Amino acid sequence: MRRGRAAAALLLLLLPLLAGALPGPAAPPAPTEECGRRPLLDSASGSRVVGGRDAQSGAWPWAVSLQIRHAGVQFAHVCGGVLVNEKSVLTAGHCVTGRKDPYSWRAVLGVHNLRKHGEHAAKRTIRSIAVHPEFQRETFENDIALFELNSAVRYSDYIQPICLPPAHLHPHLDNATECFISGWGRTAEKGKTSAVLKEARVEIIPSSVCNSSDAYGGLVNHNMICAGSRSGGIDTCQGDSGGPLACHHPGTDKYYLIGITSFGVGCGRPKFPGLYVRLSQYRGWIKSALLLSNRAANRLSITLTIALTATRAVLA
Question: Of 77, 88, 112, 143, which one is the catalytic site residue?
Answer without folding.
Answer: 143
